[in-house]
Specification:
This protein is mainly alpha-helical. The chain is built from 12 helices and no strands. α1 packs parallel to α10, α6 packs parallel to α10 and α7 runs antiparallel to α12.
C-alpha cells in the first residue's frame, strides 16, 4: 500500500506541474485582457479553502459569493471554480492521501472514475448557453444547501468501519463517483455527495477524505484547462482563489486541524439559498435561445 500511495502522490505532483505550465502559457497568451486578482479574490480563496480542508466544501460558498457580488458573468463561474480551486485541492490531497488509510484499489478506481466524469462533464458545460448554466448552478446550490441541512440535523448516513470496497460495492462506488465528477464541473461540489456515497457503502467516513480530495485533485486540472481553452472563466478571480487558497489549506491542515462547523454550515445554507434564488431568477429572465453574438465558447 505504501508503494501504491507513493506512486499516486508522484502522479498527482506531475498532474499539478502539467496544470501550472499549461495555465501559465494560456495566461500569458491572454495577458492583454488585463484581468488581475482583487483583494476579495484572495480572501475568498483563503476562507473557502480553509473550510474546504476541514470538510465543509468550497464550491457552493464560492459560487454564492461571486453571484451575490456579481464578480463575473454567471457562465464564467463554473470555470473559475474548477481552475481557481485546482491547486489548493491538490495540496489537500497530498496531505490526506498521506495521513489517512484507505484501500489503494478503491482509492484509484474512484479517482479515475471521477476524472473521466469531469472531463466529459467539462465538454458539456463549456458549450452550454448562459441560461442553462444559470439553471444548473441554481439547482446545484439548492442541492448543496439540502446536504448542509442534513449534515447539521445529523441525518447523513453514519457509515461503517471498512477502509476499502470490493465486488458490487466497488462497482457501485465507481459508477456513482463518475457521475459526481461529471456534475462537479457545473459547480455542485463533490465533497458532501462523496461522503454520503462512501458512508452508504459501509466505509469509514474518514476514508472519504482522501477519496474525495484525491478525486478532485485529479479531475479539476484537466476539467479546468478545458474552461481555460474556451476562455470560460475569470483569470483574475481564479488566480486569487489559488494564491489565497493554498495558505488556507496549510493552516487548516497543520495548525487548526478541527473546528465546530455546525454554525458555519447554517450560515452557508442561508448564503447559498440567497444565491440559488438569484441564479434561478436570472435564468428566468434570460432568453431561452441565445443570439449568435452572445457569449459562448470560442471555436
Amino acid at each position: 500500500m505504501i508503494a501504491g500511495k507513493l506512486i499516486l502522490l508522484g502522479v498527482l505532483c506531475l498532474v499539478a506541474l502539467w496544470f501550472i505550465v499549461r495555465w501559465w502559457l494560456s495566461s500569458r497568451a491572454a495577458a492583454q485582457r488585463a484581468d488581475r486578482p482583487r483583494a476579495e479574490d484572495f480572501a475568498v480563496g483563503f476562507v473557502t479553502n480553509f473550510l474546504d480542508t476541514l470538510g465543509i466544501g468550497s464550491f457552493a460558498s464560492t459560487t454564492a459569493y461571486y453571484k451575490i457580488r456579481a464578480r463575473m458573468p454567471d457562465e464564467r463561474i463554473p470555470g473559475t471554480l474548477n481552475v481557481g480551486h485546482a491547486l489548493p485541492i491538490v495540496v489537500q490531497a497530498l496531505v490526506y492521501v498521506t495521513i489517512v488509510e484507505v484501500g489503494i484499489a478503491t482509492l484509484v478506481a474512484m479517482i479515475v472514475a471521477a476524472v473521466l466524469g469531469a472531463v466529459l462533464g467539462a465538454r458539456v458545460v463549456t458549450r452550454l448557453p448562459r441560461r442553462s448554466i444559470q439553471l444548473g448552478m441554481g439547482i446545484a446550490l439548492l442541492v448543496a444547501a439540502l446536504l448542509f441541512v442534513l449534515a447539521n440535523l445529523k441525518l447523513m448516513p453514519g457509515g461503517g468501519s471498512a477502509l476499502s470496497l470490493h465486488g458490487g460495492r466497488l462497482v457501485a462506488g465507481t459508477v456513482v463517483n463518475f457521475i459526481l465528477g461529471a456534475i462537479m464541473t457545473l459547480g455542485i461540489g463533490l465533497y458532501a455527495p462523496c461522503l454520503i456515497l462512501v458512508s452508504l457503502l459501509g466505509m469509514n467516513p474518514r476514508a472519504a477524505f482522501p477519496i474525495m480530495m484525491g478525486s478532485c485533485a485529479f479531475l479539476m486540472p484537466p476539467a479546468g484547462l478545458r474552461f481555460v481553452a474556451c476562455d470560460r472563466y475569470s483569470l483574475g478571480a481564479a488566480l486569487g482563489l489559488t494564491l489565497g487558497g493554498i495558505p488556507g489549506v496549510l493552516i487548516a491542515a497543520y495548525i487548526v486541524k478541527e473546528l465546530p462547523l455546525e454554525w458555519l454550515r447554517w450560515l452557508v445554507v442561508v448564503v447559498v439559498l440567497v444565491a440559488s434564488t438569484m441564479m434561478l431568477r436570472s435564468a428566468a429572465r434570460e432568453p431561452a435561445v441565445r443570439s449568435a453574438g452572445s457569449p459562448g465558447p470560442e471555436s
